[in-house]
Amino acid sequence: MRKSLLRSLRRTVTRAAVPEGAADAAVPAARCPVDALTAVAPTPVHASVPGPAGLLEEAEDFIRLHHSEDPTAGDPDARIAAVRAEIEATGTYRHTPAELVHGARVAWRNSNRCIGRLYWRSLRIRDLRHISDADGVAAEAVTHLRRATNGGRIRPLITVFAPDAPGRPGPRIWNEQLVRYAGYTGRSGAVTGDPRNTGLTELALRLGWPGGPGTSFDVLPLVIEDSDGKPRLFELPDDAVLEVELDHPEQSWCAGLGLRWHAVPAIANMCLEIGGICYPAAPFNGWYMGTEIGARNLADTDRYDLLPRIAEGLGLDTSDDRSLWKDRALVELNRAVLHSFDRAGVTIADHHTESRRFLTHMDRERGHGRRVGADWSWIVPPISGSATPVFHRTYDPAQSHPTYVHHPEAAARARGDFDM
Questions:
Q1: What pLDDT does residue 48 have?
Q2: Cis before residue 402, ω within 30 degrees of 0?
Q3: Cα gap 75→90, rounded to integer Å
Q4: Among 239, 266, 234, CA closest to 124
Q5: Which end of the chain is more exposed for a tag (fewer CB within 10 A), N or C?
Q6: Partners of 278 in the beta sheet?
Q7: Helix or strand or coil: residue 381?
Q8: Under 8 Å CB-to-CB from 34, ≥6 apart: which residues?
Q9: At 59, which helix (H) or strand (E)?
Q10: To 10 degrees, what angle do helices 76-90 and 52-69 make?
Q11: For residue 326, how many C-alpha atoms fall within 13 Å in the half-sphere facing its CB?
Q12: Which tens digit of pLDDT belongs to each residue from 233-263?
């Protein structure tokens, strides 16, 4: 399977002079012309910082959690006293490197919608809290993708940029993920590409992006804003985006559909919240579970809606739902995804294995005396749910902290809504 590294830069790359300072804690792209920024009004940015009393309470809860789980952390009372003094003096506080590492990993452990939490301790943390400008964020987002890709052996990784602080909001990445495909709306209303991203695609075009070749899989530029609240564009270099061309193990016609998907699912617009501190730009990734691509991204009727085309290729009768043509097409599409990633040497999980591993995670956490929150509707895979062990049980949906939070304004930015 050929690994596609697509798209060439159309403009000169402007690289920020960013100190490396990006060592893993565990073990630039093309720029939009300045005058194009006047095409949209800046998005109001409000730093997500609680008041001093609330911040101190959340900070104390986190510090005690950290010290209870890390035997090297020592007595929490001295640290709490130092944080209290810092909050009283500045209105906020700064996590130690060890606190950031622990907080980011526990946030993954507490992600109620994630089935792959067994690996939470393996998350690598890039502490880039000194970077708050859009150029620096863009350059290091590219570095994140390269390191996470790791030649196809995907590494769980998070890159943490400057947090929100009183009067000093941190940077924001508008894209839902670092790699997203454009959705071009034609005059008839038909969409070429991913319909989920039509709003962000239109915004990027207004900001000066010339658009891609016009395929169904044109990689969008990053849309990043810093403290001035103005979104700017940064295209991703070819070598930062590994993509897998999709084929089927038996159906040779499948290759002719020209399907592909990117290798690293790096969530970019969720806020990492640790002890009352919000890190609004903290892109993080694990690796894909096959159904995320085959049963949702490529199959949902409001996304690529490929089941009718797959069914046609298979010669299925689509005139009656009772023929179960959708079910049969869905299984074969998911087989194609797993087969293609395996043949390309790119890490991917299947939903049966990951379901068993999630129960292993629950058992381990209970062995440590910790509850496991979970959202049943997200934990149960979107195909063959009742054939997996996670289906036949209930879960406690209560959310623990630290965690990753999807704020409404971040979702609006991902839709390209800028007049908020």
A1: 55
A2: yes
A3: 24
A4: 266
A5: C
A6: 273
A7: coil
A8: none
A9: helix 52-69
A10: 160
A11: 14
A12: 999 999 999 999 999 999 999 999 999 999 9
